Amino acid sequence: MNLRECQLPNGSRVIIRFCPYLILCIQLLAASYGVPHLSAQQVPVRRMLLPDLEKIALTKNLGLAAGRLDVAQAQSDIITAGLRPNPVATLNADILPIPGEGFDPNGKQYGLSVALPFEMGGKREYRLENAQNLVIVQRYQLLNTARQTLLAVRLAYYDVLGAQEQLSIADANLESYRKLVSLNETRFKASQISQTELSRSELAYEQADLQRREAELTYTKSQRALRFAVGYSDAEPDANQDISPIEKLSPLLRDSLAVLPITPLLTHAVERRYDVLAARNLRTAAESNQRLQEANAVPDISVAPEFTMQQGVAMYGFTGAVPLPFNNRNEGERQKATLRLQQTEQQIALAELTVRSEVQTAYAEFQTRLGSLQRFHVGSRGGNGATVAGQTGILTRANDIKTASELAYKAGSISLLEFLDAVRIYNDIYKSYIDAVVQFNKSAMLLDAALGADTITLD
Predict the structure, then answer these.
(1) pLDDT for 407 beyond 70
(2) CA 58 distance to own-chain centroid
(3) In angstroms, how far is CA 393 from the centroid of its own chain?
């Protein structure tokens, strides 16, 4: 019991005892009369399609936002690379004193020289070339990040669809057990069944309720994972809204991929994947950097035109300056450029090997998932792998057994344990079917990502 103090309109105060059971009854009455009640855990839901989520992810994902800044920084390096060295102005002024006579106006001396540096060996051109190649590398790396982002969104999306279906199964299962308990209560009152059988059905209902709560938790976690993959942050106005797909879970149409040979798929992936293209352009950038470092070994020269006024006499001339590279020919940077070029060759080989491995793994998983999914519809297979004639799929047979068991139990032909066992088998098979659809769709998305099937355009 809770004590609450309330103030009446006339200013007096009263102590009221609140009973939790009374509050619960009031809530139930309000619900029965249509009064809306929003629990603390209920939040608005935005229903969206996968293409819409992909577009949002390409805009909001923080990893892509950081990658865009990397591209912008690389583009700024092009501006820096194109700068030319500034001329250097030198001004001098002297007034020479005459011993014993002070300063002679004709003894003043002043001059101006402007040194004009000239970069030799094509340094500026190679700097620009190297900076432009690095921008291309950053763009391909950004596109590869976008490829990975789309894959994460798609995998999370099908996880939500699967969790949504599992929750629907749990709801339907809980409702079935509720009806079973209601039926058995009626039969118990009519002395048709024992107290033990009624208790078993009530325990089955409690277990179904626990399974439903677990399915709801899985669904909520998958929604949060989808929000994270898309890029929604808690600071946005719609941060309290969950994302839920509009469509229902169904197998993707990817049967044509199952009959394609693996060799052309590998060739296609190596030529299209953005990470391989980034590695190849990194080698191009390393080649331009090597030319730049070779050019940096060439000394620059400076030419300085001069004007000098000395004791009333104007003189003109120029000075040339050439560094003598006895101790510095850029040896270290030239050696690093050569090693860097060798490193990029290894990086290309690693990227291509990674792509081939991912395609082979994704292709094998796709084949396995497709075969498992077909078993639910086509039927079982014999020892030689051929489909047994006259047999329907696993899912259809399990449903037929469940329906027959339900009718038989209502007619009193089988026991409660036999009926519950038939329901359990059907639920397990149907859940396995949902998992098979989710895993098949996810394997198709993994294969598409491994092949580099998406042509991504970013602003």
Answers:
(1) yes
(2) 9
(3) 36
